[in-house]
Amino acid sequence: MRSHRALWKLLALLLSFTLIAAACGGDDDDDGGDAGGDTDTETTEAEGEDGEGGPTSGTEIVFAAEQEPTNLNWLTAADNAAWTQYIMSLVWPGAIYGGTDGELVQNEDLVTSIELTSEDPQVVTYEINPDANWSDGEPITADDFAFMWEAQRDAESAYAPAGTNGYELIESVEGSEDGKTVTVTFTEPYADWRALFDYVFPRHAFEAAGDGDPAVAWTESFKPENLDPAEVISGGPYLVESYDQGQSVVLVRNEDYFGEPAATERLVFPFITDAAQQPQALANGEINGGFPQAQLDLLQQVEGIDNAEFEIGFGTFWEHLDFNLENPILAELEVRQAIALGLDRAGIVERIPGQFSDEVEVLNNRVFFPGGANYVDNAGEFATQDQDAAREALESAGWTEGSDGVYEKDGQRLSLRITWRDPNPRREQTAQLIQDQLSAVGFEIELAPQPDFNFLDEGNFDIALFGWTGGLTLGSQRSLYTSGEGQNFAKYSNEEVDSLLAEADVTLDEDARVDLYNQVDTILWEDLPTLPLFQNPEIIMWTDDVSGVQYNGYQGPTWNAPTWTIQ
User: Which residues form the signal peptide (predicted)?
Assistant: First the structure.
């Protein structure tokens, strides 16, 4: 067994955090993900049981998928699953992708240039590769870009898109030069313009699959039960060869691809939705790789497989606490301060992600990650545990210690629930550590796991323990911290934060925008509606006869799959 233990120092300027309600390889409560960065790699060897290698040497790589798609189009609100993106991004191309350094990278196979050609009004011009064609021979044109705009600009439309960020601010998408020049004009400035058109679908194929109605195809035609692989027209290095519902999806090399041809003829994605089964499948030679949920016992299994290699990365998934400010106790700033001061977050890091790598750090910024050029530790006095200061904060607000060590005020005990979605062994252990640490400074903490995430929308929590997942845009910060926004589960409201976030959304100067977000984070440390903890570990594993696999916390495990080879 060879391990590559990598702490990916994320250098993303355009990094943001947003909650998506689907599972992925990084954590069973999170989704998405788009790239890592500089690596510090330690290689070790260990003895364990032998594996058989890949099923079809030289021509086929089998890589376990932890989810089965509900629709090959993952850009619908109902079907927005990470693993569908990981698979179908090899079929439907995009103008950009998340690179391993956390920056947006232009897909030069599809577009030869992307340029901000005017700021007032804001205009972005894309030049499509003259040789870029769909697998049926039709050219990829501005009409396909316009299709992506039309499908994603209105959350209430028949397309029911997963998101509208930026697309709702576009006034027009026009083509020229035989459709190979795309001119995108905005109604108002949009700072995250670089992240748009990250995927482009063939309008004509959707129209055909939907019997003339592309919205029908968008939401229904590519569901497994309705799927005809021949209708999945590709603009990427692979085609959908077959789909066996409940079993696997098979991709085959697109021999007519206009870019660099895929190195391996066929990629097979069997649906192994129980991550605990993936190491045994690797050891038995049933699969050549996987991206399972990072649990310590799973890692130990992988370490015991002779012909296995793996990397551990700390990517875009991060744990945090949300405080329900509609709870009268937590509405008191001093109580939230006492929690932040009473917690030994460094100890939690050591006990939880520290079991995977000793390089992970306490997260002291809600917008940028440690190691990134824009990361600033804004935590101030809350950066380290101070139990005396925690008690002082409580007593300054009129709380007094009871005979059993629990503080009281006006006949009410300092009693709070901590809630997470169960089962999740890592979160359960985190919650237990939090319970123990806060009990030491006078809190009574009840562990209150729930079977689903409904507790967030319903506000049925005092302290919520869950994860955000980072992407390649910053604009979604507004949804997390702006007054009245849907993902602002803490019910936090601060007019200055609202104003700064609104200004950041229309600030095109990148340095100025970074400064605005760090100002927001500084205020969030003063107000403490949330408390960041740490980045979650992720594991990608493969057999040693496979070459080219590389962790990418932003774009997912298959980001460079066309370059993979097998002996």
Answer: 1-21
